[in-house]
Amino acid sequence: MNRVLSGMRPTGRLHLGHYHGVLTNWVQLQHEHPCLFMVADWHALTTAYDEPGAIGQHTQDMIIDWLAAGIDPSKATLFIQSRVPEHAELFLLLSMMTPLSWLERVPTWKDQQEKLLHKDLATYGFLGYPLLQAADILIYRADKVPVGEDQVPHIEFTREIARRFNHLYGRPVLAEPKALLTHASKMPGLDGQKMSKSYGNTIALREEADVITKKMRTMKTDPARMRRTDVGDPEKCPVWQFHKIYSSDEVKTWVEAGCRSAGIGCLDCKQPMIEAVLKEQAPMRERAKAFEADPARITAIIDEGCEKARRLAQDTLREVRNAIGLTRMVTKPTPVT
To answer: Active-site residue among 75, 119, 194, 308?
Structure first.
């Protein structure tokens, strides 16, 4: 089908890690393939089933971030998972033929349980989320799914499910997708760790300029540089990781020489980064303001995307039902005498 399917859980405003790790890739893909980008709100419930109240607002914030980052609804289909109930029916039908052992061997199932010890994840929904993810892909017969290396087992699982269904019911109904490997985001957080909300080290997309400036001016630097005259090592400084992403070779040479010789101070080093991030964010803020001022436009984009996605999903599900033998029987009502 030469079709791309990708999605994100709605967890609130996105940050630069999402932008460099996912959205820049989406923006490029939408010019190369038919793309469907999904708000995976049912997936959010697999770990936030006891606190669903914020999912609606998070969904809206995330969609605005997508649009602000350059996702074009005239080129890509934007939709909300729960607005396409065919996902749930395919998930149910596939669950009838999926061995339990296949779900238990998915690596991220155990990894997430260990990371989220404060959550009760001994639920059917959490165990079955790789199958729901498979249904998300298979319902659109997407043949390309952009993922990082840690998600490749999920795509292999989806391929196995498609093969098993086609073998059991004797028809090549479901297409086997391929993983479209994406480079892992190298965007560090303000403290040098991976940028993550849980670490409190993020720069959100569309953040106000004065907030970004304050955050970056107070970033930690090489602990060896206690005073302006102390020499430093760029490799031990979180700011240097930003330079690797944003700066030209000329600026990086200036920073490295100045840091190692104490020829520049840490605020001098940070200034090009502040300017680069503000320059990157400026058009996003402008695009976002236009959408925030016109919520009806966002509603229209999502309504149109959900309708288009649902038509595609219904076509696939019709063939799935026929293959299984679940054709709809239409009978005339018995006349009343």
So the answer is: 194
> What CA–CA distance (Å, rounded) separates 104 from 151?
15
Of the residues 75, 119, 197, 308, only one is catalytic, namely 197
> Distance between CA 202 and CA 14 in Å, rounded?
9
Query: Of these residues, 110, 115, 214, 220, which one is catalytic?
Result: 115
- Residues 6 or more apart whose Cβ sits within 8 Å of residue 196: 17, 189, 202
Tell me whether the CATH fold assigned to 4-187+294-324 matches the one assigned to 206-289. Answer: no
* Active site annotation includes 75: no
**Structural domain boundaries of the chain?**
4-187+294-324, 206-289
194 is catalytic: yes
CATH superfamily ID and name for 4-187+294-324 = HUPs (3.40.50.620)
pTM: 0.91
Over residues 157-182, the pLDDT tens digits come to 999 999 999 999 999 999 999 999 88
Active site residue 197: yes
Residue 174's CB is within 10 A of a number of other CB atoms, namely 27
CATH architecture of 206-289: Orthogonal Bundle (1.10)
Q: How far is CA 226 from CA 189, 193, 229, 232, 265, in A?
A: 21, 21, 8, 9, 11
Q: What is the CA radius of gyration of the chain?
A: 24
Q: What is the dihedral of CA 126, 127, 131, 136, to 10 degrees?
A: 10
